[in-house]
Amino acid sequence: MQDIAQFFTDLILQGYLGLFIACFAINMIPFGPSNMVLAGAAIVLLPSMNWVLVGIIVALSATSAKLIHYYMVRGSRLIMSEERLKILDRERERVDKWGAIALFISAASPVPDDPLIVYTGFTKYNVVKLTLSYYLGKVCVTLAGAFIGYAVGSFFESIPMIIGSIALTLIITGFLFRPKEAKGESSILQDVLKERKSDNSEDSQNPQI
Fold first, then answer.
1. pTM score of the predicted model
2. pLDDT in tens, 63-101
3. Residues of 28-57 as b/e, b for ≥16 C-beta within 10 angstroms?
4. Which of 9, 37, 88, 137 could form a disulfide with 108 if both were Cys (CB 3.0 to 4.6 A apart)?
């Protein structure tokens, strides 16, 4: 546990590039820790960094990781049945209408955004809209987190490294030992698939004569 936390701490201490790589790697893991807290811990670890740039970089790394998730999910459509694809495609109109707002809100709030990224991937949501909406939402919280970290680091000028290391350790610990329920898939998608499964079961029990 401490080795993992130390690895990411050392990476962040390399500067902006190390910060991007560390946050990108963390965000590649579904249902990872809060990027707001990551931005705050980063600026506490290395107070010489500009807190605005830290917030921007953390948001960029998170957006980049989620784009990879999006394309991975979208690519999985190739192995889906025609019936399941038709179900997802019927949802596309609703996703096109509310997707940008939903992505912004999920990115800017503590609510896990991974289920929504999965849903947009399955429904082939516009990637440009996804990128802009998600990034704008995420940069709001990462800038806030970086500013809080900057304020905390300024208040405890003598021990920023200790505070940052403790914060990063707590982040990784909380992530590794989070409840299994946090790993659930999109409830919306599950509802769609369950509804379809229920329809198929009823058809099989009531065959046409």
1. 0.73
2. 999 999 999 999 988 888 888 888 888 888 888 888 899
3. eebebbbbbbbbbbbbbbbbebebeebbbb
4. 137
Phi, psi of 178 (to 5 degrees): -70, 160
With beta carbons less than 8 A apart as the criterion, state whether 154 and 47 touch.
yes
- Give residues with Cβ within 8 angstroms of 108, minimum separation 6: 137, 138, 140, 141
Q: How far is CA 191 from CA 26, 72, 186, 199, in A?
A: 29, 21, 9, 12
State the amino acid at position 208 in one-letter form: Q
Sequence spans of domains, the chain: 2-177+186-196
In the predicted structure, residue 197 carries a pLDDT above the cut 60: no
SS3 at position 35: helix
Distances in Å between the Cα of 47 and the Cα atoms of 12, 64, 117, 121 are 11, 25, 33, 37
